[in-house]
Amino acid sequence: MTLQQHPFARNDRSRWGVWWWTTDHLLLGAIGILICLGVLLSFGNSPAAAARMHVSDPFHFAIRQCVFAVGGAATLLGVSMLSPKGVRRASFFIYLIAVAIMIALPLAGHHAKGATRWLEFGGFSLQPSEFMKPALIVLAAWMFAEGQKGEGVPGVSIAFILYIVSVALLLWQPDVGQTVLITIAFGAAFFMAGVPFKWILGLGATACVGLVSLYFVFQHVASRVNRFLLPEHADAHQQIDRAQDAIAAGGWFGRGPGEGVLKRQVPDVHTDFAFSGAAEEFGLLFSLLLISLFGFIVVRGLFRSMKLSDPFEQVAAGALFVLVGQQAFINIAVNLNMIPTKGMTLPFISYGGSSMLAMGLTLGMALALTRKRPGAYAPTDGPAGAFA
Predict the structure, then answer these.
(1) Which pLDDT does position 216 carry in this prediction?
(2) Per the domain annotation, does 2 fall within a domain?
(3) Domain count, the chain
């Protein structure tokens, strides 16, 4: 192949050719970099996690993460080829299946760390709430758009019913972190849908009351908040303290690949605290690069979303990018001890099959909704191409 040749010509009308020329290449590239970094970092964090969990193979988690990364990338590519109608249909069925599994979790689920969030089969743990999140956001955006048409569809009411069902099932597990996350994303969709400002104030006030109520209802939430606000009363061996030590030890350039020492004292260094392990071995500059990647994906994604002409596509895509950005923010903020611990993964970086596949699904939907198609963008945004 010569330098002038390209795998897809602009007049290539094949499914892959159309997909390539209508997808945002910068977003796709940034997501691809994150997936690759997640795999590379897993080889550094896996030995420490394997030693603490008495797993004989030091790269047990890294090898599994490679498999998850392939699955996540395949999910991302496959879903990004869907039409907006296909995204809505997929979200409807994913939401129904995820809710059904979440209802069955108390009977068939795996109980760990004081919660029942996973369904285990064949050595693989599935967390249905991870897949419910993007499906809920898309369905809520769909209902908001239908309600704005003034054709008698109670879109806002249906969206809130879907949200309340999701929150009830999450708190039943319980999973307060995911509840906070979907509330923020749902609120973002509500705001972007252009509802009256007094409704937004009402939703915000209700969310604040609910957040305070969680402190009094769930003992583990009160314990985490107390440890965060009153660190002198916390156990000196808490995981967050060890994570902070690892981050501080990294300095500007880190100790070097595989040279991390303090990360070995962080039990969840391969999952919720993967950021601290990466910071110790690769330093502050790498950490800022990682944060910048997430920031770029969110900012460019929102920029593309706001230029869409269809209300559903605009709100759904924008809220999906908010969902990813907010999850990354919460995870990194926890690692830096800026907020109480939440038990939330860093998208594409933390170890986990459900997280990797669900992130592929989430950003695959966002890419699908922001693809160039006739009428999707205003004419001043440049040629959209004659692709469906």
Answers:
(1) 77
(2) no
(3) 1
- Highest mean predicted confidence (pLDDT) among 159-163, 246-250, 268-272: 159-163
Residue numbers of the domain that contains 244: 22-97+197-374
The 10s digit of each residue's pLDDT in 16-25 is: 888 888 999 9
**Between residues 264 and 3, the one the model is more confident about:** 264
Q: How many CB atoms within 10 Å of residue 71?
A: 14
Which strands form 115-121's sheet, in the order they lie side by side? Answer: 110-112, 115-121, 124-126
Residue 69 lies in a domain: yes
Which DSSP string corresponds to 286-304? HHHHHHHHHHHHHHHHHHH
Q: Is residue 300, in this structure, part of any structural domain at all?
A: yes
Does the pTM surpass 0.85? The reply is: yes
Burial class (CB in 10 A: 0-12, 13-18, 19+), 213: exposed
With CA atoms as reference, report the closest residue to 280 among 260, 257, 306.
260
Structure token pair of residue 332: 């990194």
| Token couple for 74 | 């395949």
Please give the C-alpha separations between residue 120 and each of 116, 127, 174, 304, 341, in angstroms, as whole numbers.
11, 9, 18, 38, 25
Cα Rg, the chain, nearest whole Å? 21
C-alpha distances (whole Å) from 64 to each of 69, 83, 113, 282 are 9, 31, 22, 22
Residue 1 domain-assigned (yes or no): no
How far apart (Å, rounded) are the C-alpha atoms in residues 366 and 346? 18
Locate 383 and state its tokens: 């040629």
Give the model confidence (pLDDT) of 34-91 as tens digits.
999 999 999 988 988 888 888 888 999 999 999 999 999 999 999 999 999 999 999 9
Cα separation values, 168 from 67, 99, 174, 264, 339, Å: 33, 11, 9, 37, 24
Nearest-CA neighbor of 305 among 369, 387, 375? 369
